[in-house]
Amino acid sequence: MGVLIPANYDLRKLTDKYEKRVVQILRDQLSDSWKIIPRLELATEKRSHEIDVLIFHEKYGVIGIEVKGGQVSLQDGTWTAGKRTLEESPSVQSRNSCRALKKKLQKNVLSLRKIKIHSAVAMPESDDSEIDMVLVDDIPESFFFQSDLQEKTLGPRLFDFLTKVANIDQHVRYSEPVMSHEQIEDFVKFVRPTISYKWDPEAQANEARASLNGIVREQVRALSTLDMNNTVFVHGAAGTGKTYLVLNWANRALSAGKRVLITCYNEPLADYLALQFSEEQNIVVSAYLKIPEAVEGFPALPVPNPLPRDWWDTAPLAHIKKYASQLSNQFDTIIVDETQDFNGEWINSLIELHDPEGSQSLLMVGDWQQNIYQRDGKEAVDALAPTEAELVLNCRNSHEIGNLLYNLGGAQVANASPDGQGLYFEYVTDMDSLVHWVEHFLEFFIGNLRHDPSKILIVTRTSAERDAIRSSTPGGYVCSAYEDGQDGNIVCETVFRAKGLEFDHVIFATIDANVKKSFLYVGLSRAVSTLCVLAPTEVIMDQLQLVRNK
Questions:
Q1: pLDDT in tens, the chain (550 residues)
Q2: Which residues contact 329 (CB under 8 A, 6 or more apart)?
Q3: Nearest by Cα to 67 from 32, 99, 91
Q4: DSSP string for residues in 416-436
Q5: N or C of the chain: less Cβ packing under 10 Å?
């Protein structure tokens, strides 16, 4: 939804019903990155002006809108709206009012000396049947008729307009903001001097996360009761709410007095899940390979030194299979997150941890597209003939990021998802340029956008890239493992250890020109609100098809 300024603006103040309707349409149909200022009155030396609605966006600038009610017509050079004859063309009226505001801003506000204000006309009850568009004194795209002000048409029509007046291309997935944070605050201060307005990117990120959490709750609620079945597998692309469903299932089982095991392959994800149940007594949360260490009753499993290459693939599995039946405290419900990271033998070994007198529930979620380890867990899951369902909407990522992931094979972005705070990229060719641009964007995120460092994740393709970034302390910021992120450090991990995690702001950094699509998909999908991609040209232009606005 578009955001009114001030947020508590009372639409009953608008006595013109057509202006009120247009403001409501803009509020309900635009994304949250668009800000809406109803009715601005201006006085100049020559005459007074009114701008019925102002809207602005940090990437697209300011648009002043003149509203005309009733059927608008142009006959023999005369404009009418309903039964009223208009003294001048609506587009001329809009253009003159916007020009007057532009001159005032340029004269009185230093930061806005180069501001551009585009003019448009909205006609919520009119079509173009009585207007000869050949005769109008403006581009046709600046006229928004009734059919243009609908849910499915307003966004595309607005971009048609911006394409003409500001060279904005809706197919370009990256564009520099045209208004800085200082300019936005100065602009609002000038047009609404009685209110206190602060452009707060971190608050916007929090609002985006809260909005997305609400969407995921609605999507997951319907699948929570699948736990009534003994064996379940729910497929969901990145960001569809799989981990949220895992938490729901665990809470439902605990409320029913069941003993629960949650497991996954990735240790950082296991740490996050364990934190959600830190005060619960009847649950164990563990990475699969650490189950012999985490579950009470297993004999110690010594780790040899030197470590055989395949030890972690075989030794914990053999240990679980050998001693599972001897445990005195087995599990009623076992829940697996990121099932695609498991091989078939691991999945089957979990069944041996069930209490033979309990409900013996095995509840699994996963996304086979994220099978970056190339393991054979799918065959084992299929053999169990589980009850299956799918989470279909991406509820983690904001629109701009979600649309990028959709083109990599991800889920459709939820319509109500917020715009987010930007998609950035730079080309890198070697480790030095990689570290340089990581430093640049950390300064930008933390210094310019005022993002909380604890909400930033750096994801790399390789451990060498990760180690280079950590050792360089880019910009003086300490980059460390996930386990040390609680100390105020910036988390920097490979795509393997970042799996299953999500952060508000993500920098994906690699010099691998041949990085696999699955690694891109996993790494980029960690970002909720802001994403920066640092990669070779082949990745950015060919695989992601990112180009800059000119």
A1: 788 998 888 998 999 999 999 999 998 888 888 899 999 998 877 788 999 999 999 888 999 999 999 999 988 888 999 889 998 899 999 999 999 999 999 999 999 999 999 999 999 999 888 887 766 777 888 999 999 998 777 877 887 888 888 765 544 444 567 888 899 999 999 999 999 888 777 677 677 667 777 778 888 888 999 999 999 999 999 999 999 999 999 999 999 999 999 999 999 999 999 999 999 999 999 999 999 999 999 999 999 999 998 999 999 999 999 999 999 999 999 999 999 999 999 999 999 999 999 999 999 999 999 999 999 999 999 999 999 999 999 988 888 899 899 999 999 987 767 777 788 999 999 999 999 999 999 999 998 888 899 999 999 999 999 999 999 999 999 999 998 877 779 999 999 999 999 999 999 999 999 999 999 999 999 999 999 999 999 999 999 987 655 4
A2: 259, 296, 297
A3: 91
A4: T----SEEEEEE--SHHHHHH
A5: C
Return the H-helix or E-strand segment holding 90. helix 90-108
Residue with token string 């142009």: 74
The C-alpha atoms of residue 259 and residue 359 are separated, in whole angstroms, by: 10
How many Cα atoms within 13 Å fall on the side-chain side of residue 9? 21
Chain centre distance of CA 294? 34
